[in-house]
């Protein structure tokens, strides 16, 4: 597993392997259920993670969006769009998490 995964996530997957496999299958089915390309879907999921103020999900979706071909500017715009819906503190926090992920990958 990638080293950036939290220990608790890895431990949960190791303890409940069947449930983790089923969750992975559901995630694949959901990702394939509509017409959005992977990059767009990752940017949407990033917006949802920002709205939930979910640090790990923001970081994960930044990584996955970059891997799917999103630019840093596109990711920043998604985060900035959260400003008028989720608020300034949530937006700044998500931007900080994004900056940390980008710095890790540099």
What does this structure look like?
The chain starts with 6 loop residues before the first helix and ends with a helix. It is mainly α and 106 residues long. The chain has two domains: 1-33; 37-105, Up-down Bundle (AhpD-like), CATH 1.20.1290.10. The radius of gyration is 14 Å and the shape is globular. α4 crosses α7. The chain is 79% helix and 0% strand. The chain has seven helices and no strands. One of its GO terms (molecular function) is peroxiredoxin activity. This is Carboxymuconolactone decarboxylase family protein. It comes from Georgenia ruanii.
Which key phrases capture this entry?
106 residues, mainly alpha, AhpD-like, 0% strand, globular, Carboxymuconolactone decarboxylase family protein, CMD-like, peroxiredoxin activity
Per-chain topology:
Elements: H1 7-15, H2 17-31, H3 38-52, H4 55-67, H5 72-81, H6 83-86, H7 88-105
Helix pairs in contact: 1-2, 3-4, 3-5, 4-7, 5-7
Pfam family, one: CMD
Domain Carboxymuconolactone decarboxylase-like: 19-100
Organism: Georgenia ruanii
